[in-house]
Write a structure and sequence with these properties.
CATH topology: Hypothetical protein af1432
Number of helices: 11
Strand order of the largest sheet: 1-2
Order of helices and strands: HHHHHHHHEEHHH
Shape: globular
Largest sheet: 2 strands, antiparallel
CATH architecture: Orthogonal Bundle
Helix content: 55-70%
Distance between the termini: 22 Å
Bound molecules: fe (ii) ion
Number of domains: 1
């Protein structure tokens, strides 16, 4: 999938003024930047793929702003022929939880779980490209660069202190540490340095 195709899919399912569309465009820019730095340090990473995943991760918000936006985005991408790229929609919501646990949290139905498993859904470790996109998302609140702690403090204020939000924060911070190893610096600092390039 090319970035233009990802942008076209995003635009097809959102209105020009939708704040979540702006968020996706911004996460695309941020994720690409992190991937370029990692690539320049000699680590193999598919930079184009990372940007595409950043652009698509919240596609499901077109169907509602709730915990189902992961599966909804995956289904929209799949229907457009981009099943593999659409995984990020679900991965960034699952945050390491199994599909079974995600059903109990209301992220998808039992029928959807069965269908995903029949289609060969890989639980377990996300790809490096998916990890970079998930970390970029965790550092961008709407379109602004924020520390991961601040994004989760906001989420707790908005949605209450669900235990899974603390688990989610720990999962993303673990990924951010992995990415830091590859970047040679914290992802937040790397994005801070390119702030002028953010939208
Ligand atoms: Fe999301």
């Amino acid at each position: 999938m090319e970035r233009e195709e990802a942008i076209a899919l995003l635009k097809k399912h959102s209105t020009a003024g939708a704040s979540w569309r702006a968020h996706c465009l911004q996460v695309g820019v941020a994720a690409r930047h992190l991937a370029e730095l990692i690539s320049r340090r000699g680590h193999p990473v598919d930079v184009e793929r990372v940007e595409v995943l950043g652009l698509l991760h919240d596609l499901g918000r077109s169907q509602g702003h709730n915990l189902r936006h992961g599966i909804e985005g995956y289904l929209l991408a799949e229907a457009a022929g981009y099943q593999e790229e659409g995984r990020i929609c679900l991965v960034h919501i699952l945050k390491g939880h199994t599909l079974h646990h995600a059903v109990s949290l209301g992220m998808l139905t039992g029928e959807e779980q069965v269908r995903l498993e029949e289609d060969g859904w890989r639980s377990g470790d996300p790809s490096l490209e998916e990890k970079i996109a998930a970390v970029a998302d965790a550092l961008i609140s709407d379109t602004g660069l924020v520390p991961i702690e601040d994004k989760y403090a906001n989420a707790r204020r908005r949605y209450g202190g669900h235990p899974h939000l603390y688990e989610d924060e720990a999962w993303v911070k673990g990924l951010a540490e992995e990415i830091s190893e590859l970047l040679g610096k914290a992802p937040y600092d790397a994005l801070q340095e390119m702030r002028d390039d953010l939208l």
